Amino acid sequence: MNAPAAAPPRISLAEEYAASGVGPVLQELDDELVGLAPVKQRIREIAALLLVDRVRAKFGLSTEAPTLHMSFTGNPGTGKTTVANRMAQILHRLGYVRRGHLVSVTRDDLVGQYIGHTAPKTKEVLKKAMGGVLFIDEAYYLYRQENERDYGQEAIEILLQVMENARDDLVVILAGYADRMDRFFQSNPGFRSRVAHHIDFPDYADDDLLAIGETMLGRLHYRLDDGARAALREYIPLRRTQPLFANARSIRNALDRARLRQANRLLAEGDVELTLERLATLTEADIRASRVFRQSEGVGS
Model pTM? Predict the structure, then answer.
């Protein structure tokens, strides 16, 4: 008499999720970045796919490593590098890369200036990135089609080969402005066919930037008083209309300058007793001294 077939194993997906350690990384992403709900949702979906694939393998179901190369498009200061860092950690905790580190580069790190210089530079960067994530910012500068003597095409060919042959040991994230990345993919179809996930990072709303600014200050043990908060709320839309606006990066720079003004103000006040409250508080004057307000009134522009 034949023995009854063994019952298939039962696996709790919730327990697998908890054991993977991915949850805290996703929570850190939520804590670090205000807004960006569509971006966070896409990252959670990718994490869920990888987790389910890992469980499928335990059931003996055939699986193959999914293509995980990505494109992050959006304006500066929208959180692309932060998300790339967290993505590297997620991939490592789910066993899809060995080390989980992020190597961030631009064209200058990959493309040489003379014959025979590009291949060694590109291969050295790839060697450092293996087992983790390679983040290429402003990737569309890799190849300058208008320059016949540009060596970027050599770097692109090496990258494409490694993206295909070592995709189980390296994830490449290409980043930059959306319109330029579209043109880049049109002129380099090899990249488009290898990039499975295209994630757009929208600009932050004004209220989001205010919340981001207060979070940044909180990490440094500073706070805004009511007048400073109202002034920063006015500052944000004014700064948005000016050149080189970079979302959260511009807010960080503005607050760094406000801290400089606060320090200078405290020093100028001389022997007035310093309290923890005074040291930690930025006032309306610290914010409104910005030239952004003067330029909006037609002064100093």
Answer: 0.87
